[in-house]
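Annotated sample (chain length 91).
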Amino acid sequence: DGMIYRWANRGDYVAIAATGVQVEVARPGGGSRLDSGTSFAAPVVSAWMAQEIAAKHEDDPFRMIEAAARPASKAGRDGTYGFGILVPSST
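Output written by the structure step:
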């Protein structure tokens, strides 16, 4: 819903925010469950970035992130959302 997760990292090093709350994850032994945390947002960004690098042969990850981020702050890059929110396309 665009709100920052209460335990999300914050600081000048944050480059982008991604879905990490109520993410469907594999359950040991089979099946799936919903879970939350920055550990679940990181693979979303990693998978998106791998796809973008393969498709566009881009080698500057920060330029890729900045171009793809949906701005979350009128102030530009900030220590909460970075460049904004990553909304990976379904294609």
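Annotation: Helices lie at 38-56, 61-68.
Annotation: Residues 14 and 82 are 5 Å apart (CA to CA).
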